[in-house]
Amino acid sequence: MDKESHTKKPKISDLMYACDCLDNLRISINDIESDNFMYFNNALREIIAFDNQKLIDGGWHFWFSIIDPMESPKVKKKIFDFFTSPYQQSPFVIKYHIKNGNNKRLCIRHEILLHTLENKILAINYFFDITEKEDFERHFHLANVSWKHNNSINSASVISPREKEVLLLVADGFSSKQIADRLFISNHTAISHRKHLIKKFEVKNTAQLIKRASRIKELW
Fold this sequence. Notes:
The chain is of the alpha+beta class. It has helices spanning 3-7, 12-20, 42-48, 52-65, 72-84, 131-139, 161-171, 176-183, 187-200, 206-216, and strands spanning 26-31, 37-40, 92-99, 105-117, 120-129.
């Protein structure tokens, strides 16, 4: 490979081309200064089942319209709060439900990673269809069962859905005040959740909780 190939800077078009070659990873890209999406790859369009131009022209407004109406306002606020906060290297992760173009309800795990390219801050959106996982856990009542890590969680301990949300934010390094703002709860409640998690994970402090939470984050 010649020197020029090593030093050539990637372009947004290169990124889109690479995404088009993916069969299983579902991706969209948008410039965070705009409300519109720049791109949806083929793998994502297949599960969303909407016309590509409708997705591009409709932008975030259209995307939020296909999210469960009970979840959409909260999802919208969390995503836009992430975009307007200082540049973050840690990915933002949220789970919600959508209804696709075939009128099928899907459970989506949405991960957003910020990346600078061609002097633009791009939001790289990864979408994972976890509908079967949710159905499986619901059927066998597994949704609120605790996860063990190096035998550090007491087998009788149960991680509630709210504690799970708090733990994911702790893993991303958010303070109790930031967690309270994102989850629409009081600062006192956020601190209480953090204390309960420290107790359940049998760690000594928040620093150890962050370390432990980061390790198990991908299990969810």
